[in-house]
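I am still getting used to backbone structure tokens and would like to learn alongside you. To get us started, please write out a protein record for me. Once you have written the record down, we can walk along the chain together.
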Amino acid sequence: MTFECQPARYPTSCSRVALLTSLLTGRAAEWAAALYNQKSPACNDYETFVKEMKKTFVHPSSEVSDETRLLQLRQGSQTAAQYTSRFRTTAARLRWDDAALKAVYLEGLSPRIREGMIGHEVPTSLDLAVDLALQLDRCILNRPSTMSAPIPLTALDRPIPVTSVDGRPIMPYPLTHRTQGLHMTIDQHRETLHFLVIQAPATPLILGHSWFCRHEPHISWST
């Protein structure tokens, strides 16, 4: 940043190397002095000097540690904004492409956010994934809390992928649970149903295509 703000003061690689070495202390200062004494070409090229310094003093496992930290990062009880901030801070130190970052970001989101992505197309970039996660998190945080007892859930024998009518995935994670039998009443109609569990901030219950085919209800779409 110093060089960008004062380009006229440090116009050459040599002047930039000189400034950097003047700021070094301890072993780093001794290392730089040895390079000057050896008349190393690195002293005349700033980028080469920095590269040599990193090779000498930056442990090669530092990036591995950042990779591990990013892979283990989870939203947990944080808001999506807090999780995103930590994710981007760690990701900035890595050289991963956007597709890899998006996949890891989605994996670290809380289950309520991931399930809330049902009904949305799978984000095609990290920025779109972040925008969707923040939007869903706001909906969940603003949703009135209820005091009703939790509904008992049963794990499915195998996960069910969620796709649109043309087969495209609309959620990166499959459904894994359903409710135990719930009694549903619509006017004079009563039945017991098992509902697949999703996190849908705006819709508490969805009756699927199979239910409509089975009952063929008469619906007035204008009211």
